[in-house]
Amino acid sequence: MEHIVGKYQVLVATNRQEGISTLKAEKVDVVLCNADIAGENAYKAPTVIRQEDQDVVIILSGARLSSKDVISAYQNGMNAYLLKPFMPLELCACIDSLLRLKKQNNNIIPFVGDKNEFSLDTRHCILLNNKKEKNIYLTKREALILELLNKSKGNIVRREEIIVNIWEKKDGEDLYASRSLDVVIARLRSKLKECCNIQIVTAKGIGLRLEY
Hints:
The protein is α+β, with helices and mostly antiparallel strands. It contains eight helices and ten strands.
């Protein structure tokens, strides 16, 4: 396996228990499971893996898995199925593609406490409406401020912390950045008011927090 995916570190587990132990002990990005060795219950393997790691990429490979079992494996959390025999480059391309997709999805941040109505795409600076009604398009600073406030889970974030993190100022008292923050917050409040119940609340003289 190492010579097939040479640019990645490969950890080999010869049975289910070794695989689970490896998942618990190591930070794993991809699990490649041999469905032929796993036997008739191979389609259940993703369920077991997901119990240990919700984010890991799961690829099953095999020659004897039925169409019904392949569908069940996808429903149980599998990301891709490779039919044997496959070319080494096919495996590498599959891994690379799934890891790219995972990286993109890591830029999507669910909003805490809003009943899964909105998610923040920090890469494209969009507040996504999960009900597909209307998205809110943001500037880079607006998106970064929302991300920072969302991480606080409703607690107050001090103005100085926002200025240091978003404007990259060493001094949180920078007058220009402070005025710029007020302008950005006013614009952001206007955008949020049009489409959702997410509010930016000012704690006078202290900072800002999100309310849902």
